[in-house]
Design goal:
single chain; 297 residues; alpha/beta; Arc Repressor Mutant, subunit A; D-Maltodextrin-Binding Protein, domain 2; 3 domains; five-stranded mixed β-sheet; 43% helix
Amino acid sequence: MISSRQLECFRTVARELHFTRAAGVLRVAQPALSQQIRKLERQLGLELFERDNHRVALTPAGAALLEHAERVLADLAAVEEEMAGWSEGTRGRIRLGVARGLAARLARLLVEFSAANPGVEAELREESNEAMVADLYAGRLDVATLAALPWPDDGRLATHPLGQEPLVLITSATGPLARRRRVPVTALDGLALVLYSKGSAVREIIVSALAAAGAAPAVRFETREYGTARALASAGLAAAILPRSVAEEAGPPVHVVRLDPEPAWAPSLAWSAMRRPGPALAAFISFAASRQELALG
């Protein structure tokens, strides 16, 4: 039977892809760690790593085992957290992913939640939608605000909708659309535009809206950050499309233009439906679902 210690050793080597570094993370001797991995490979009758003098790489079997190891170890951590919660009150740690358009709202919510639950620590990561979905599936995140839910829905995530909000176009005060309040999406054909990096759900909404209208803007810049898109738009280098609430936040001056038809994003709070939330996570989900700080519209 595979032990949790073997899985932990395997996961650490798989993450580091270096036995000496992994041994340092685990605070064990490198020969002892190598022996643990060889023992696991003998038990399974498989090679989990490709090794030579220059590199360590996962085999296909090792990559498959890593997905299971992440989930199993996350489940064990959740069990420990739940038992600690029962014995000591609501305590623990929440690994929280945030959609970029909700970062400011979530920060305000965390201030209130932390004041009401001082025994719970929150770790915040701002990632692409694609990366957050993968981390929720693998147990690397406990909960996240997703800009869009994965399709097709395979039942692995539990969700709470956070409303809907239009995406708007922003330009400089002297740009070609600076005097307009609303324009058809077709007017963006040929316009210099900032687009977000692959993995962004808002990027996919924008691309779909442009394709439906038959508009082909000139994508001059690509970025992961709304702040960068706003700075480029303010400087007159390109227009950008982003959530209305983000456009209304303080920052470099921009002119806001509504689009017709109006694309929108509908973010959700999401967590694993495959594991029962521990006390700390359950407290956060309940708190977030009952407050208006994250709600759009």
